[in-house]
Amino acid sequence: MQVLKFGGSSVASATAISRVLDIVSDAAGRGRMVLVSSAISGATDLLIECSKSDSGKRQKLLEDLKNRHFEICRRLFTGRERTEACERLQEIFNDLSQSPLEDYPAFGELLSTSIIAGKLNCDGVRALWIDSRELIRCNENGVDYKLTYERIRKAIHDHPEIEVFVAPGFIASKSDGKVCTLGRGGSDYSAAIYAAALQADRLQIWTDVPGIMTCNPKDVKKARTIGRLSYESAFALASHGAKVLYAPTVEPARQAGIDIEILNSLDSSQSGSIICAQKAREKGEWVGIASQKKDSLSQICLVADGAIDPDDCRELERRMHKYNIPCSPWTIEDGNCCTCTLPRDDEGEALKLLHRQLFETEDRKRIYLAGCGAVGQALLQIIDSSSAKVEVVAISRHESEDDAFFQQLLHGDGESRIFVDCTDSEEIWKRYCDILEAGVNIVSSNRRAFSIGYKDYARIKSCARRNRCFLRYETTVGTALPILNSIASSTNSADEILSLQAVVSCTLNYILTSGLPFKEALERAKEIKLTEKDPSQDLSGRDALRKLLILAREAGIALEESDVKIEPVSEERILPGQRFVASLEKDADARLGYRAGIRLENLDPEHPALRLKGTENMVIIRSAFQPSALIVQGAGEGARMAASGVLNDILR
């Protein structure tokens, strides 16, 4: 058995409820479940306002609430099913209008769960709505766990055919049968009660944030998700103002030994936070910061897993005074909490200072990866298996079309944000300037993005300089070979490039050195995914052209496609001892002072390029300052090699 709880924002609209149904569908393969839901976002606040308003205003507020729920029904259901769903809602609103005002807040969850249970049944799921008012019983001391657990177990046991039990959160009843609530945020508590009663294998709380965070991200944009934390730490954070979890939720789960997963219903791919039993640390390790306001004061609470060293608290107090943030002396509570009070107006600055001190000491690179092909996948595997301080914040598999991904990237926070382009998109470069303007660095393996028209290329480079962002693309030529860096080093030192010879087409070098007939070699190159998607791009010299443009521009030469003379490769042109060479040579008569070409060349028997085999690349650089040619040679193909080069660009 598993228990899944969804918060108000997770069921706020028809679209949101559809996401909930997708999550439930994925979870169904793991077994039966209880689905606990909050009221739709804002409904409980509105119902409380209704209970305190005069009849005229109350009627208007209820009409607004009714319209919101009926609109959700109109979007989720069709035909007869829509009629039945609306009739069920109308019955609940009729009950609401005849209920005592003090019972109004309990109706939000009745409405939301009615819709969800109805939709599940329409979709062919064997679902049953169960009434938490009948199952969760309270006495003068709070929840009567013994009686409640017995009632829940019986309700589930009596319906072995049901796949999903849908239960309203937040609400319960007293021993005299009167309706009561479990407190604001009480739906979390309801879910933990159901999970403990049923000894559930899984308790998931789905909300609109990616787990419990080191601080409220509205206060500190650099806050990050806490992967794992103890029951004690979670309770302390929730008790001192962290609103992502209702504090009483922890105890039933802890007593039953059930992990609590906090997950993001807006992005189910995120791993979220896990609250579980953890061995107490001998020396406390900081977990998170919580805060809560009261009148003109705020209380800040620092929470650790394990015992806090008083000297650590005193050091933090000194730092706050150093930055002219007034605060009371820090006090340690329950061994793992450190609290202070300060003027409400100083809370924001204090939170940023404390978070920076406790959680931002490591220089972690935060990457946003576009493209999950061979190179992108290899990069993720290398990051996962290495000790590199790299955090993968978001992944786009839709390249330049993924607006949600780019919105997250552009509006994120932190100086260490890096956009990593592992696509082969011909359009994504159009976003580069916006990314750089947002203060985000770029690492790219996409040679198409740097072989565009020179005017656009120069604009991107200028944008990077103006915004003091790095723009690194070493792997666009020669994969992991330091070719571009070698050229840039000469250019930056005022050396003059006299000529370049580049054997950089892995496909053509493979064909020319394979010993196989041309057509057979080309087919083999296609089979091992060496060629472009369209092999004519290789044979026509287009792939080599892109690389030559990048090489020339790195040397400070504003080369355009129209400046390059290309002789495409055909079977009848190939002779022994040839290599497919992209070249750049000084020529006073050429437009830019350089002559550029790409063609099969008959090389002198002593030429170093004749040593190349398979997919090896070579670039030969001759410059005014260097008496001998600089030769860079090595493997030019391989997703893992390219990924390692990308990671080097990220880290350096």
Description:
- Helix content is 38%, strand content 22%.
- With 652 residues, it is of the alpha/beta class.
- It folds into 4 domains: 17-198, Acetylglutamate kinase-like (Carbamate kinase, 3-Layer(aba) Sandwich); 285-358, Alpha-Beta Plaits (2-Layer Sandwich), CATH 3.30.70; 365-466, Rossmann fold (3-Layer(aba) Sandwich), CATH 3.40.50.720; 483-639, Dihydrodipicolinate Reductase, domain 2 (2-Layer Sandwich), CATH 3.30.360.
- The strands form 5 sheets. It has an 8-stranded mixed β-sheet, with helices on both faces. A 6-stranded mixed β-sheet has the order 23-25-24-22-26-27.
Write the layout of secondary structure elements.
Blueprint: E1 2-6, H1 14-28, E2 33-37, H2 43-51, H3 55-76, H4 79-97, H5 107-122, E3 127-129, H6 132-135, E4 137-139, E5 142-143, H7 145-157, E6 164-168, E7 171-174, E8 179-181, H8 186-198, E9 202-207, E10 228-230, H9 231-239, H10 250-256, E11 260-264, E12 273-276, E13 285-294, E14 297-305, H11 310-322, E15 331-333, E16 337-343, H12 347-359, E17 365-370, H13 374-385, E18 390-396, H14 403-410, E19 417-421, H15 432-437, E20 441-444, H16 454-466, E21 471-472, H17 483-492, E22 497-503, H18 506-513, H19 518-527, H20 536-539, H21 542-554, E23 564-566, E24 578-586, E25 594-602, E26 616-623, E27 630-635, H22 639-651
Parallel strand pairs: 1-2, 1-9, 2-6, 3-6, 4-7, 9-11, 10-12, 17-18, 17-19, 19-20, 20-21, 23-25
Antiparallel strand pairs: 4-5, 7-8, 11-12, 13-14, 14-16, 15-16, 22-24, 22-26, 24-25, 26-27
